[in-house]
Design goal:
Helix Hairpins, minor pseudopilin epsh fold, globular, mainly alpha, about 10% strand, binds manganese (III) ion
Amino acid sequence: MLFCISMLSFGQFKLSPLPFKYNALEPYIDSTTMYIHYNFHHTAYVNNLNKALEKHPEFYKKDILELIQKLNELPADIQTAVRNNGGGFYNHTFFWTMLAPADTADMSIKLEKVLIDNFGSIDTFKAEFEKAALNRFGSGWVWLIKENSGKLRIISTPNQDNPLMSIATVKGKPVLALDVWEHAYYLKYQNKRAAYAKAFWSVVNWPEVEKLIEQ
Ligand code: MN3
C-alpha cells in the first residue's frame, strides 16, 4: 500500500518552501494574505497542474520552465491547463523570490545606475511599473523583463501568462514580477491596487533582481 502511494506521487510538481515567514512582509503585505496566497492559491495551481498531467504522466519528469516555454508543442488537451496552472505554479514560485522581509533589501548603486540608464530615473521606473499594475484590466502580472538586446522593459500579462511562454506577445527574461490578482492584496488594500503597487517597493528583493539582470 505504501508503495502504491509513493508511486502515485512520484515525480509530480511540488511547491518549494516559502523563502520567508508569513509575517515577514508586514505591514506592506499582511501575514494572512501571504498564508492564503501560498497555502491555497499557489497550492491549487500545483495541484491542478498535477491533475491535468495525469493523462500524460511523462511530463511530470520535465522542468516547469520547459513545459511553459513549449506550450504550443504540448498535447492539445493539456495546453490550457498548463498555461493557467503551470503558469500559476511558475509565476508564484518566481514571485516569492522577488520578495524580501520589509525594508531589508536595498537597491545597490550599481542597480540604480542600470535602472536609470533604462528608464531615465528611479522615479520614472517605479511610476511606469505602478502604471502597468493599475492598467492591467482584471487579473494578471506586471513584469520587468530583460530583452535579448539586454534592454529592460516593463510589460504586463493577463491571468497566469508570463513573458517566457511560447504564446507570449512580448518575450523576455523576467527579472522582477508583481502579482496584481486581487487575491494578492484585497484583504489589506481592497480595491486600492495602486497603494499595493506602491507598498511593493518596500519588500522587493533588489539583490535578487540585480543578480537576474547580470546573469
Ligand atoms: Mn497570486
